[in-house]
Amino acid sequence: MANTNKITIIGGAGKVGSTVAYALTLKELASEIVLIDVRQEVTEGEAMDIRQGTPFVGPVYVHAGDYNDAKDSDIVILTSGVGRKPGQTRLDLAQTNVNIMKSIIPQITKVAPNALYVLVANPVDILTYQFVKTSGIPANRVFGTGTMLDTARFRARIAETYKVSQENVHGYVFGEHGDSSFVPWSLANIGSIPVDKYAASFETKKLPEFSHDDVEDYIRKSGGIIIKAKGCTNYAIGVTTAYLCETLTYDTDSVLTITSMLDGEYGIKDVTLSIPTVVGHNGITSRLVAPLLDSEVASLRHSADCLKEVIGQLDFSM
């Protein structure tokens, strides 16, 4: 049975926005999904295409609309922005997409002041920071997908290496959704066995070795590889965003590496980045200060400093 949520997607005509809408529809996470985009005809086409498959899914009404149609949305997903080009970093997009967000924020918050806001557009950490600072929406109701996708890539890579179910791989990627992200290997395990000791736990089977640096390099470069090959990334982030929205419908909270405004965790303040965060139906309830090694805390602070350096160069004035 479909959820009674109303979800609005800003940038719904784009590859990411339309894929998010499709993933939400397959999961029946809303009774109404509103797609808003400046390309009205394309938006109507995407909505119609998804809507015509709903007889085989459930009673989800997917339609194109404007900001007035987003009134009283429970969740607003923001995917608008210029896409990353081959060879371009997420942070290269910063001021361009910050400027696009400036025009969106006052229009959407006026009609949906009580919504949970999910930032997906890149650079996601920067745009989440902008939204928290300029929207007037409480910080616990504004967050981005952050390193959720990076974490999924990490789990997929380790699962591929050891040919084990991804569900048995546990670990997170912390920091920026970008070049300064890192894996706290001290927390990573497979079926409760530390990742680095997993191969040695078999007496009769020899498993392959792997390098921490190679895995982290794979995580950071995956997006660029996919963009070079097909022009965009949309499926994995679509599923990631739908999964995040699913957790927002539960009364039971989940721990996810979303990006949000830190307030002293690990000695870091006034920057948005990803650490394990408790989130659910009412948004963020708390952030976890996991027991990191000193070197891992240093990596997290370095990531925060990288983001702060970029933030200091941007104009967020409305």
Low-pLDDT stretches: none
Inertia-based shape: globular
Helical residue percent?
A: 25-40%
Count of helix runs: 9
Structural class: alpha/beta
Q: Please provide the count of β strands.
A: 14
- Please state roughly what percent of the residues sit in beta strands, choosing from under 5%, 5-15%, 15-25%, 25-35%, 35-45% or over 45%: 15-25%
Query: How would a crystallographer describe the biggest sheet?
Result: 6 strands, parallel
- Compute the average pLDDT: 94
- Element order: H for helix, E for strand: EHEHEEHEHEHEEEHHHEEEEEH
What does this structure look like?
- With 318 residues, the chain is an alpha/beta fold.
- It is built from 9 helices and 14 strands.
- The strands form 4 sheets. Strands 3-2-1-4-5-6 form a 6-stranded parallel beta sheet. A 3-stranded antiparallel beta sheet has the order 7-8-9. A 3-stranded antiparallel beta sheet has the order 10-13-14, with no helix packed on it.
- The radius of gyration is 19 Å and the shape is globular.
- The termini are far apart.
Features:
single chain; 318 residues; alpha/beta; six-stranded parallel beta sheet; three-stranded antiparallel beta sheet; 9 helices; 14 strands; globular
Can you summarize this structure?
The protein has 318 residues and is α/β, with parallel strands linked by helices. Helices cover 39% and strands 17% of the residues. A 6-stranded parallel β-sheet has the order 3-2-1-4-5-6. Strands 7-8-9 form a 3-stranded antiparallel β-sheet.
Secondary structure topology:
Blueprint: E1 6-10, H1 15-26, E2 32-36, H2 40-51, E3 61-64, E4 75-78, H3 94-111, E5 116-119, H4 124-135, E6 142-144, H5 148-162, E7 169-170, E8 189-190, E9 193-194, H6 195-198, H7 212-230, H8 235-247, E10 254-256, E11 259-263, E12 269-274, E13 277-280, E14 283-287, H9 294-311
